[in-house]
């Protein structure tokens, strides 16, 4: 029987549910406007199903299905096909399901789907590939070992019933997939095949297919490709019972994190919200407990100077069990007041108990959810199919698109039931801080997290409630930001690109009405270009503090707007700061004007200054715990970008900065500025102009103007270091965290300054080489889980970079492997037929012709052109035209001239970050005699001073003529 699937009012796509004869449930989505087609298969088998002693087997299987199948036996041919046709592919394993997905250019969807279907029909898990891929799983786990999120998540699982699958370690590593099974006489590959054959059954799968074609055509495709999947009629894995027994409740766990900072995780087992998704009990409670407006729990803790962040909501749930979590980021003072904070939290829960469940508040929340559902932005097909396939396992077909996003049945007793579960007698408190170092006696086995545990009684928590400070907690007021006018303005001018609507010595305004998306939303970006803001490390840090304090002051006011789908941000840039407001246009101007007023009347609150300063110092100190590949990317930017201050210098000045320094700095920073503005969406040109006129009036008019226009000499430019032709520069440096086993390499090849023809040659190289690089360096050589080749753009200077993180080889050795790969690739390139070349060029053309999905995506694209100063709004059309003209011979010449290992024009920079196992190599690599064209960078700043710069697109000749 056909089911009516509830969809957004603005959604023009067609949907159909079918069930194949093997019991596979399929949702077909027809979208004639799409450029990309996509599919997602959700299998109701996850890490909870791992056999005892083979932890990570479900996750390992997810990796293995990508390798090869009986029908397509060539290793990696699936991923290669997807990448060559403009697509991406990935998968993830969760506790109860595994999701596989891809997208691809529309013209080759059928072939891609055929390859994808073979994952579930006849995969080949060759012995050689199995052994190699265990290393990738191990490398993935290595990457997580120093991540506090992974560590704390596993600690919460560790402190649960050993007989419950929640207790398991889900990722797997070399030990669980190779060493231990071998010791027990088990063959991991045989276990893998057995696991696949026993668990992967068509009746446990849900598939979404998203295509340009009609529903009838997609149905034929689905039946043709997927009905060979065997139905073993398996019942869904279920594990009744709760993960936490009484010994795991009423506990206080002190844990030592890797990073600086203190955190409280307060967790209760509750009735799963999924059982009452129309009533939305958890949505209602997380709305109130996580609220940030006046009178809220967070507002009170923030005012006391105890907390810098708070989130609340359901996490880690299945249909059998669930947890409600409140996570609070603490200040140093807050850490000393842990008992008071728990006391205030339970006082707020008590207030909710006393107030009873509010119907008007539920109705307000339901109204916001309804508007958000019906006016949601169109997302990329791949994200849409993943979300929908995951929903299919859980919800009845009519709610596959909605999920639990539309609470509509007000039921006070259901909400009250979950509220009653948030009680002191079943709470679990996880308290993280470096201050516990050396004071714990236990260690979690998988990640090595040090912790201690003690029981806490209901009486103790009641005492904490009594001794907590008397504070004015109250429920939120009705939300004034909920949009009521969702009408669409008719764009008078059907413009394709942004137009320069207005220009003066104070500002420029780019404007683009919505001619694509028909949503009642707008996007406003105002870039304050202030030369004083980035003039020194001190200035940069003070600008950062300035933007954070503004966000802090506005938080309780703007939080209501955020709930109603209207978002804002104030962020510092290299040359000042930016204000962004995006969302429903109805009340956007009210919020924007409040933000502008706060900037104009900026005053430093010393108490808030010291809280923010403490937070920023911790963030800087935590830089050393970033992944080594992130450190390498940071050094690469520091070397290439002319206006960049090192984090070490900023960390050095930070402790000495006081509130009065910012009070003096802010007016000076604002004293000279230029506003670059972009306004787009459901907004008329006259309104856009009046917004900018208002902002100019606030800053530049009146008897004592806050800002003066910039002098011509002060317009800032973005300059990039120009590497010398034929030279290979390398920068060796020790990883910042001595306990990190990972090393990393960024091998960057700088090619040219933005120009359509070389752009497309470089992009085509990146497209053609991306998959072979991944296959060779990760799948075959198993250098490490993080292996990528991608284009790089620094303010319009184009290049390409290899990014690799590894425990098995040091960065100089990895560098040699990258060069070896380029030599293998060179041979392949010369052997490429014209037909193959054309196929790749066409795939890139299709990718470029892909339309923006929503206003945010479109605005980000145009804003980058404005911010970099390149102003090539018709970039896609021009690059497509260049690609259509491009001949294979020219492409090969480009490779020979700029990319290949001995290319005359080749300019490379290798940033090598050495992890713990490779420190002995660090010393020898530095002293090794280097070849004539190889240059070691010892000091980044002397190097930068000695190098020429590329011209800047921004503030360049003719750019700012007024």
TrEMBL record:
Record domain Peptidase M16 middle/third: where: 373-652
Peptidase M16 C-terminal domain ranges (all copies): 188-365
Alphabetic keyword roster: Hydrolase, Metal-binding, Metalloprotease, Protease, Zinc
GO biological process terms held by the UniProt record: peptide catabolic process; proteolysis involved in protein catabolic process
Family: Belongs to the peptidase M16 family.
PANTHER family: INSULIN-DEGRADING ENZYME-RELATED (PTHR43690:SF18), NARDILYSIN (PTHR43690)
UniProt protein name: Insulin-degrading enzyme-like 1, peroxisomal
UniProt organism field: Manihot esculenta (Cassava)
């Amino acid at each position: 029987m056909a089911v009516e699937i509830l969809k957004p009012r603005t959604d023009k796509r067609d949907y159909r549910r079918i069930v194949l004869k093997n019991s596979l449930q399929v949702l077909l989505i027809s979208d004639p406007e799409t450029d990309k087609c996509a599919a997602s298969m959700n299998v109701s088998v996850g890490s909870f199903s791992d056999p005892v002693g083979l932890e990570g087997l479900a996750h390992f299987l997810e990796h293995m299905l990508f390798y090869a199948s009986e029908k397509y036996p060539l290793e990696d041919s699936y991923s290669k096909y997807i990448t060559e046709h403009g697509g991406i592919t990935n998968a993830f394993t969760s506790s109860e399901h595994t999701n596989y997905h891809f997208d691809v250019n529309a013209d080759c969807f059928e072939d891609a789907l055929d390859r994808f279907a073979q994952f579930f029909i006849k995969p080949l898990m060759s012995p050689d590939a199995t052994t190699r891929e265990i290393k990738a799983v191990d490398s993935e786990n290595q990457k997580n070992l120093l991540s506090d999120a992974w560590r704390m998540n596993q600690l919460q699982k560790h402190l649960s019933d050993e007989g419950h699958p929640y207790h398991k370690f889900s990722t797997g590593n070399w030990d669980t997939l190779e060493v231990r099974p071998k010791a027990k006489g088990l063959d991991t590959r045989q276990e893998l095949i057995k696991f696949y054959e026993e668990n992967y059954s068509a009746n446990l799968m849900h598939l979404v297919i998203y295509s340009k074609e009609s529903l009838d055509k997609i149905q034929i495709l689905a039946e043709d490709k997927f009905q060979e999947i065997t139905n073993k009629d398996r019942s869904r894995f279920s594990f009744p019972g709760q993960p936490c027994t009484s010994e795991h409740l009423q506990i206080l766990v002190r844990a030592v994190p890797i990073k600086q900072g203190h955190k409280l995780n307060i967790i209760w087992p509750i009735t799963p919200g999924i059982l009452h998704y129309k009533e939305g009990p958890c949505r209602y409670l997380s709305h109130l407990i996580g609220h940030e407006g006046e009178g809220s729990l967070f507002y009170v803790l923030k005012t006391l100077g105890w907390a810098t962040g708070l989130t609340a909501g359901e996490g880690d749930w299945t249909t059998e069990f669930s947890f409600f979590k409140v996570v609070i980021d603490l200040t140093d003072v807050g850490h000393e007041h842990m008992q008071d904070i728990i006391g205030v939290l339970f006082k707020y829960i008590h207030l909710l108990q006393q107030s009873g469940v509010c119907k008007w508040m539920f109705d307000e929340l339901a109204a916001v959810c309804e508007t958000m559902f019906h006016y949601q932005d169109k997302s990329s097909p791949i994200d849409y199919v993943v979300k929908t396939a995951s929903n299919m396992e859980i919800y009845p077909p009519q709610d596959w698109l909605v999920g639990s996003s539309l609470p509509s049945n007000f039921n006070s007793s259901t909400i009250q039931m979950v509220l009653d579960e948030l009680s002191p007698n079943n709470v679990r408190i996880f308290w993280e801080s470096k201050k516990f170092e050396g004071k714990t006696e236990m260690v979690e086995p998988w990640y090595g997290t040090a912790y201690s545990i003690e029981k806490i009684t209901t009486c103790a928590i009641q005492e904490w409630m009594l001794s907590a400070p008397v504070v004015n907690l109250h429920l939120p007021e009705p939300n004034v930001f909920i949009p009521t006018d969702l009408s669409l303005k008719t764009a008078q001018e059907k413009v394709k690109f942004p137009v320069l609507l207005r220009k003066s010595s104070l500002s420029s305004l780019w404007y683009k009405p919505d001619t694509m998306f028909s949503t009642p939303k707008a996007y406003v970006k105002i870039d304050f270009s202030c030369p004083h803001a980035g003039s020194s490390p001190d200035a940069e840090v003070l600008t950062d503090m300035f933007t954070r304090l503004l966000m802090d002051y506005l938080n309780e006011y703007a939080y209501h707007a955020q709930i109603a789908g209207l978002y804002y941000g104030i962020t510092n840039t290299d040359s000042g700061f930016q204000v962004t407001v995006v969302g429903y246009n109805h009340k956007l101007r009210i919020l924007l004007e409040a933000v502008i007023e706060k900037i104009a009347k900026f005053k430093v609150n010393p108490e808030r200054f010291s809280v923010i300063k403490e937070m920023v110092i911790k963030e800087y100190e935590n830089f050393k715990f970033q992944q080594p590949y992130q450190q390498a990317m940071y050094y690469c930017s520091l070397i290439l970008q002319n206006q960049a201050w090192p984090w070490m210098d900023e960390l050095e000045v930070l402790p000495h900065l006081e509130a009065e320094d910012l009070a003096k700095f802010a007016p000076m920073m604002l004293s000279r500025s230029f506003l670059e503005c972009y306004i787009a969406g459901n907004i008329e040109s006259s309104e856009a102009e009046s917004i900018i006129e208002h902002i100019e009036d606030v800053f530049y008019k009146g008897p004592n103007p806050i800002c003066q226009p910039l002098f011509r000499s002060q317009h800032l430019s973005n300059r990039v270091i120009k590497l010398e032709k034929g030279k290979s520069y390398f920068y060796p440096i020790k990883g910042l965290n001595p306990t990190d086993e990972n090393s990393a390499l960024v091998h960057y090849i700088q090619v040219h300054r933005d120009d359509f023809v070389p752009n497309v040659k470089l992009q085509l190289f990146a497209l053609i080489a991306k998959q072979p690089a991944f296959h060779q360096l990760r799948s075959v050589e198993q250098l490490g889980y993080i292996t990528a080749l991608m284009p790089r753009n620094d303010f319009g200077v184009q290049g390409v970079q290899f990014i690799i993180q590894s425990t098995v080889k040091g960065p100089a050795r990895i560098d040699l492997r990258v060069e070896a790969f380029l030599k293998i690739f060179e041979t392949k390139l010369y052997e490429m037929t014209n037909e193959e070349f054309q196929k790749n060029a066409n795939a890139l053309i299709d990718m470029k012709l892909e339309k923006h999905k929503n206003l945010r995506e479109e605005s980000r694209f145009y804003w980058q052109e404005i911010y970099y100063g390149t102003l090539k709004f018709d970039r896609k059309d021009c690059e497509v035209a260049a690609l259509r003209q491009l001949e294979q011979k020219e492409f090969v010449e480009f490779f020979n001239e700029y990319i290949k290992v001995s290319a005359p024009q080749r300019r490379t920079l290798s940033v090598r970050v050495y992890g713990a196992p490779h420190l002995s190599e660090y010393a020898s690599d530095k002293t090794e005699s280097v070849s004539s064209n190889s240059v070691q960078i010892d000091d980044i700043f002397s190097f930068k001073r000695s190098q020429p710069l590329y011209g800047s697109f921004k503030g360049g000749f003719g750019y700012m003529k007024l």
